[in-house]
Amino acid sequence: MKIAGRIREYSPILRALWLAVPLLGLPVSCTSMSLDDAVPSAAPLAAAGAPQRPTSPDGYPNINVPAAAASPQLSESDRQRLTGELEGLRQRQATPLVSSAQALSEEERLRLLARSHGDRALSEIDAAGQ
Fold first, then answer.
1. Following DSSP, what letter does each residue of 38-68 receive, concatenated?
2. Cα torsion for 88, 94, 100, 105, to the nearest 10°?
């Protein structure tokens, strides 16, 4: 019963919306704007500075023409030089900078520092509290 009462409270609002929604479409249908005004014309197919593509006699584009490179390509000597540099960088990254023995000694040093730092900080706190 409580649910039916809630529906009745909103029924005037829903009834007003039900009547108003179809009326929202009326101003749109009365405008003088045509579809040609709303949608821009098609963009040109080729850019202003683009070269013309060769076409066959029937007007379709010829897709058998080899593609031209957009930028200068690497020469064989440049390719070999860059490949050598990259291989050297790869090998340098693969070798560790620190040996495992040095890494272990560094780890031990840091653990000892952490223990002594904790003890020193606690002693300073105790001294300041007294």
1. HSPPPPPSS-TTPPPPPB-TTSSB-TTSPPP
2. 70
Q: Let me know: does 54 contact 65? Beta carbons within 8 Å.
A: yes
Predicted TM-score (pTM) of this structure: 0.29
**62-74 tens-digit pLDDT:** 788 788 888 889 8
Helices (H), the chain: 2-24, 26-29, 35-38, 76-94, 100-129
- Three-state DSSP at 16 gives helix
Q: Encode pLDDT of 76-105 as tens digits.
A: 999 999 999 999 999 988 877 667 667 778
